[in-house]
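Bumping with the actual sequence this time:
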Amino acid sequence: MDRRSFLRNSTIGAGAAAGAAALAAPAYAQGNRTLTMVTTWGRGLAGVHDSAQHVADSITAMTDGTLTVDLKAAGELVGAFEVFDAVTSGQADMYHGADYYFVGQHPGYAFFTSVPFGMTAQELANWYYHMGGHELHDELGQIFGLKSFLGGNTGAQAGGWFSKEINGPEDFQGLKFRMPGLGGEALGKMGASVQNIPGAEVYQALSSGAIDGTEWIGPWADEKAGFQEITKTYYTAGFHEPGAGLSVAVNRDVFDELSPAHQKIVEIASAEGHQWNLAQFLSENGAALERLQSAGVTLREFPDAVWSAMGAASQETLDQYMDDELFARIRESYNDSLRKSSEWIQKSEGTYRVQRDAYLNRG
């Protein structure tokens, strides 16, 4: 018997028939409800805080205020990396964040943000909504008493900002670099001293020299964070997050108490927030990249030898968790979906884009 069933049955058994009847009445029938959402994002962080606020506002609007979401940014109730425990313990009702921050709870959570050399945003959506990803996210959440959904996406993230040019894999030796998730673990295998720092604290760490470089998101969010004020060396393509999903997770007891209509609204608001946020990032990045270049930022790409080293380190990182049965099943499902999605996308959209860009450049 699970924890919720035990508590429910114990309460009913101890009460009188009238008490049992009252308990059986849905909690949502007793009036309006406010849910506290905690986030891994500092208030005002471009794109990611917007995503959380958009989901919160959508839930409130679609329920006509009968279900109100009160958003608490990182540090306003709990710290950025404390939101998982806050929701599982019942201190807060739900969180919005990047699930790869919680690989310490289970390494399988990485797949629902991004893994190195993993899925683009479209490939992630294909897997999540049509090829078993959501069901596996739900299975993982059940272990911790969570009901989880995708609730945002940054699109492909940049390789990051560096205090020096990267000419080969050896340049990562001893490099103090901010990168969360399994991508960070892979860089560690390449010799980097990897730091996991909340987004709101990255600028100070970079400007003070506490770190030698950082990835954050992409041109728009990076420009808003002000990293171009500190260094002008920017790698535009990264191996670590080719389509980073953001998650909404609700305490499962809280979710079970909601009406079916309210449950569906949380699900729909999260899904719409995923697409809205992806479009937000992609619509802003191009112009922001031009502004960064105008501000003297030099755009670079990692050499092939660095990409090869990143690939080998990524494979080693993922392989080390394969003795966990759930991780292995998630990875198998993820890779199967990736193969099937990417083949068609490459043959159709990939070929088209090459030809379109060539035509436009000729014109």
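The tokens above came from a reply further down the thread. DSSP finds 13 helices and eleven strands in the chain.
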